[in-house]
Write a structure and sequence with these properties.
single chain, alpha/beta
Length: 264
């Protein structure tokens, strides 16, 4: 059996969406489109590390005619200009995966100054119209709070923010954080803001594939007609050795996350 969270499983997920008739949209397209299609998938990649994995995913999508959105961190091991350019050249949207409130230890003015500098660095490489916060479960801050003051996206010539600008009452959100698609304590900061009651949960990628393929045979009408999938490239492995290493790393991280939930 093909291992979950491997390259073949990801290709199967894309194929399931295409076979089920979903239209794939980037975050930018979703926010700019006045009349959205009836059925669509938004695939969002948070490139926390392993940017070469991201490029491999970008190629897997491109050969299928699928465009997705990649948010890169500014840290040296992730901010690799040539890889970022190649990702955009494959037809994908590229954005900034910001964590400036964390790096400024909660100082919003300093965080905005840092955000502006880093956004300029990205725009020297590619077009950036949307951004998305990076959620570090070990910090006291939520980077989305960068926008709780007077500054707005338009101040930076941005269309929006992937967590804050999407209508999650209409779009069902699934994330692979914690090596599971199921919501729960492993999603410490990876949750949507103002979402409605989610009517369906899946654990494995195979369950997600079944969900996309089943349509109204399994769900109430419209339940998963529109969905956003968060896929972290570092979590998906191209070899058995990498898969074992990532499983081990995620298992250790998940122990820490469970501990955080128990902390007063």
């Amino acid at each position: 059996m093909v291992a979950d969270f491997g390259d073949e499983a990801y290709a199967a997920l894309l194929d399931a969406g295409l076979d089920a008739g979903y239209e794939f949209l980037t975050v930018r397209e979703y926010l700019r489109t006045e009349e959205l299609p009836e059925r669509f998938l938004i695939v969002r990649h948070d490139v926390d590390r392993k940017p070469r994995n991201a490029l491999q995913m970008a190629r897997t999508e491109a050969v299928r005619g699928v465009s997705t959105t990649y948010y890169y961190r500014i840290i040296p091991k992730t901010f690799r200009p040539e890889l970022i350019r190649r990702t955009e050249a494959l037809g994908h949207e590229v954005g900034y995966h910001y964590e400036d409130l964390d790096s400024a230890d909660g100082d919003r003015e300093a965080a905005h100054a840092s955000f502006a500098r880093n956004l300029r660095r990205f725009r020297r490489l590619c077009s950036v119209d949307t951004v998305c916060m990076h959620g570090n479960p070990l910090t006291a801050h939520d980077n989305r709070d960068l926008w709780s003051g007077d500054r707005v996206y338009a101040d930076y010539d941005l269309v929006g923010e992937a967590y804050l600008s999407m209508d999650f009452e209409d779009v069902t959100y699934f994330s692979d954080t914690g090596r599971t698609w199921k919501d729960g304590p492993l999603k410490v900061k990876d949750h949507t803001m103002g979402e409605g009651d989610k009517q369906v949960q899946v654990d494995s990628t195979w369950e997600l594939i079944d969900l996309l393929s089943a349509g109204d045979d399994l769900l109430s009408a419209g339940e998963v007609d529109r969905a956003c999938l968060l896929v972290h490239p570092n979590r998906w492995a191209g070899s058995y050795a990498e898969l074992v290493a990532e499983r081990t790393k995620d298992a250790a991280t998940n122990v820490v996350k469970y501990g955080l939930q128990l902390r007063p």
